[in-house]
Amino acid sequence: MPSDSLSQSELNGLIFMREEEKLARDVYIVLLQTWGQRIFNNISRSEQTHMDAIKILLKKYKVSDPVTTDSVGVFTNQTLQKLFNELTARGKTSLAEALKVGALIEEIDILDLQKELQAIKGNDDLRYVYENLKRGSENHLRAFVRNLQRLGIQYSPVKLSNEEFTAIVTSNF
Q1: Integer Cα distance of 156 and 66 in angstroms
Q2: Which of 107, 122, 149, 152 lies at 20 to 30 Å from 9 by C-alpha?
């Protein structure tokens, strides 16, 4: 049953996740423009869907949207702004680095979603959306790892444990 209100932790998490999904989308848009690879197009569109799902929750709970402009690379959260700048610069150095940046973003997303899921106190709306976003991020991680393997590169996790990473990339969904 949906809750009518959010705890402060849930509120902060929702605001953060909205911009984190934008970060992923925006980095992939820049990398698509740089490398022209279909994976960046497909996953940037998926990240837009993730942003939209969180925006629906922001509206439902009457929370101000931290995304004040849809311009690529513009963030309210300065930590995310810095991360965007670093990741896009790194991703522009080579296609392999771009794919590694994608995998890293998805690792970060998975961990942040796990943290947010643990903080939920009975709010089924948030749980449903976050679980779906986490599944999406796991799918994206698998896609980036597959693309790296096609280039002959074995990706090693940066943020996830080896066990968690292996469980995700060897899962069918």
Answers
A1: 33
A2: 107
Q: Is residue 151 part of a domain?
A: yes
Stretch 21-46: mean pLDDT: 99
Q: Looking at the domain assignment, is residue 73 inside a domain?
A: yes
Taking the C-alpha atoms of 1, 134, 25 and 37 in order, what is their torsion angle to the nearest 10 degrees? -140
Confirm whether 123 is domain-assigned.
yes
φ, ψ for residue 155, nearest 5 deg = -85, 135
Residue 3 lies in a domain: no
Q: How many domains does the chain have?
A: 1
Specify the pLDDT at position 122.
Answer: 84
pLDDT for 80-108, tens place per residue? 999 999 999 999 999 999 999 999 999 99
3-state helix/strand/coil string of 5-46 = CCCHHHHHHHHHHHHHHHHHHHHHHHHHHHHCCHHHHHHHHH
Return the amino acid letter for 162. N
**Phi (first) and psi of residue 93, to 5 degrees:** -75, -35
Question: By three-state DSSP, how is residue 121 classified?
Answer: coil
Q: Which CATH number covers residue 40? A: 1.20.1260.10
Which domain, by its residues, includes 134? Answer: 8-169
